[in-house]
Amino acid sequence: MAALRRIARERGGWWHAYVCPVHGIELDHGDLLAGAFPDGGARCAYGCRVDGEAVRGAWLVLSHQAWARHLRVLAHRGQRAEAVARLVEYAGLYAELASERHGEAQAWMLRGRLFHQALTDAIWAVGIGHTVITLAEDSTDALAGVLPLLDDLERAALDARDVLTGQGHLASNYTAWLNAAGVAASRGAAAARGQEWEGAKVWLAGDHGLYAHLRVAVADDGWEWEGSTYYHGFVLRAALLALRSTDPAAIPSDVVDVLAAMTDVLAAVATPGGILPALHDGPYLRRPLALEWLELVALAQQLVPSAALEAVAGRARAELGTHDDGLDRALSGWFAGPPLPERPAPGRVTVFGRAGYAVLRGAGIHALLDFGPHGGSHGHRDKLSLYLYGDSTPWQPDPGQVPYGHVEFRDLYASTAAHPAFRVDRAEQAECTGKLLDADGSSVRAEVTEAYEGVRAVRRVTVGDGYLVDLLTVTAEASRQFTAQLRPGVALDVQLQAGGVVRTTWYGDETLHGWHTHTSGIPVRPVTRPGPGPADDPQRMCTWVDFTAEAQRVTFASVYQASSAGPAVTDVQLADDGLTVGLADGSTAWFRTED
Asked: Is 9 a residue whose pLDDT tops 70?
């Protein structure tokens, strides 16, 4: 089979175009190392065969990036002849493209040479550079033929970084990868020449180097400025890749603190079973993403050990199955010095004030409240969304996002309607920022006043004794139509009881029970309808639930309990001043509603 593998000779395009126009799902990749687009068109899981220039260009991106990963693994395994031959082949291809940038890139992109985007060139260049570094650790024989490629890659990264920082975008996630590419290419070239690497002053410590980028791109709560799980990990992975062979003690202390805080963020939002919620526009589930998380954890564990991230790695391996290519094992011994001390486990409530997330954990429920900034170009109109997970079950997840090449489904998954948020008069929320009102060791309260003109919404989420309480109060100057939304990612049963309480049962590896009520005297319509599931498959229908009331003020109250917790909730009653929860052991608890 290996003899049939070859490197494609064509430029890569924009991977986001690799999506079925009918069903909105990413297409099957086929054999990415075969060097040829799938015969008869790329397959869709629903039976479509998709072809065309954009789709072929997108497949080429995936193929070239798969080759870069494969070469790193070959070098690690000592398969030198094959790795060197492919590197020399890529050197020839890149030289053929040296006279021009990619002519088909979108206007907003920094154009690359082998791909549409300079960003995609940089990601590929990191793999190429690290392949050479690994080979040179054994011998520099036959690496001279790769030097022109490495030198060109470094120059291209520097040129693109100059353009980007000249536009004032030092904080861009592009900058992280351009710096990582510059490090990998220049360090690889130095290793191939048998020389000491002297590029740190440009690519790490320079005015526009990695350290400068991290200092402006990461907020004081540890989140990368876009507030997206995916782009946060994207930048952290670039940074850790750039620090190969670096002694952690040699990294500036403030940068070490940034890297540790970024790792803490992932450990805090991850469920005990290793789910990383796709907050603010990340892809929901895709095999290449599992590879990225696996690579990131392998690197992070060598710098900042975290028990929470071990579960992320385990889940990624399970998602990959036989497609696990062993890249994470090829990253052992990445840093030149000992790791930092292991970080403490997250507590019951963690609040990220700048990014605007609160994480609440208790009795088998992992909840996230989103109240922060819109998220720049990667934000969704989802203020005061409440996401619910079990250890390994996405009961009510952030739905994520489809490949951007599908405009209609991208718009859908960015909408308020797709999120477990609230709506007024069936309209979309404005792009806005909420506000944290208060938080303590068991609860968080946040508000938003700019999602709809003249409307204030406050959501208080509390970890009770074996359950979770959610109180959403919406107020306007005059009567409006208010809707509180449930957006399951799993099968859901809904039952209206005689007293007006709605019971829900959420299925998965773990089961969740819900009780839902509202302000007395205000008619609320609990309407179910089919809606698309999370963005990995928009055709998978889930049961959406809308609780809608015509009022000037209404409180929507929900109590959630994992089936593994106890004593069982038996009753919920909402009065003007608060919610009472009754338990099977005869005890009750009271939770104040918004004043």
From this structure: yes
